[in-house]
């Protein structure tokens, strides 16, 4: 069984091999389903010049936002950037390169990368600044632009439960970008709330097969709420 066991005992081991100027694909949406421990380990390692591919860049002081504090991110590929004042500051000052990407296109860039598809055509963004400088073609009377897929040096993912072979289950909306991010890394690291023995997860319930997972770690999670709204009493 040891040859198939993906479990590592520390975040140092989980993120071993991360160096400057790498590309990291990160799961999560807002603060929902983010790989908190992996992000903290990246900060602790001090890797610089990183390209981060994720739906957004967390918030000030939490999530991917903590990597902005020491200027670790060189380029951010994201579909939404509106909750982070430090992000805005670095963007406007020219310290941070940002590639804004339509959300569906970003998801497909990850999915296609994981499927071994180097590029795809999409109508989204044609005729807008998103499509500037990109190859375009017409199919059945509609215009499309060519978008390149993405594969990261690392993919960092948050799951709910996994067996020791790396078969992962996600919980509710924490699925978001995590299943596709898991396919799009040369090294995929998954942190979960619970690790069980092989056979304890029904095969039909597995959402990321272990073949995509290189390293698995049991983490602890703060699960901070990004925007808390309560009803007036």
Describe the structure.
The structure is a single chain. The chain has 233 residues and is α/β, with parallel strands linked by helices. It has a single domain, classed as Glutaconate Coenzyme A-transferase. Helix content is 18%, strand content 26%. The chain has a 7-stranded parallel beta sheet with strand order 4-3-2-1-8-11-13. The protein starts with 10 loop residues before the first helix and ends in a 15-residue tail after the last strand. The model has no long low-confidence stretch (mean pLDDT 94).
Short characterization:
With 233 residues, the protein is an alpha/beta fold. It has a single domain, classed as Glutaconate Coenzyme A-transferase, CATH 3.40.1080. Helix content is 18%, strand content 26%.
The helix tally amounts to 5
Please bin the fraction of helical residues. 10-25%
The total tally of domains equals 1
Quote the distance from N terminus to C terminus: 56 Å
Shape descriptor reads globular
The CATH superfamily is: Glutaconate Coenzyme A-transferase
CATH class membership: Alpha Beta
Strand order of the largest sheet: 4-3-2-1-8-11-13
- Unreliable stretches covering 5 or more consecutive residues: none
Look at the helices and sheets and give the structural class: alpha/beta
Quote the beta fraction: 25-35%
* Annotation, overall tally of beta strands: 13
Tell me about the largest β-sheet: 7 strands, parallel
Rg for CA atoms? 18 Å
Average of per-residue pLDDT values? 94
Keywords: Transferase
Protein name: CoA transferase subunit A
GO molecular function: transferase activity
Organism: Sessilibacter corallicola
